[in-house]
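Comment thread on ticket #2218

A.B. wrote:
> Attaching the input chain for the structure job we discussed in standup.
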Amino acid sequence: MRVLLVYDIPHDATRAKVADFCLDYGLDRIQYSAFTGDLARAHQEELMLRIGDRLGDRPGKVQLFAICEKDWRQRLEIIQEET
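C.D. wrote:
> Ran it. Output below, let me know if you need it in another format.
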């Protein structure tokens, strides 16, 4: 299932570790604090548990959205590479 994971975490080390977790699960970074990819429901829950454990008592907000393929294909985007 396609997912979009976004987060706002002020603590630098925690934020970096969350990014590592996302990469470990095969997600692709699409913005500094946003990742997308395919994850089974069990892996979604496992990843969120790992992130929650890492966050601990520190402030932060992490959201994971499941997106159906139809909606994903209908997304609008602008990608402009540096020249």
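A.B. wrote:
> Thanks. Noting for the ticket: The helical segments are 12-24, 41-55, 69-73.
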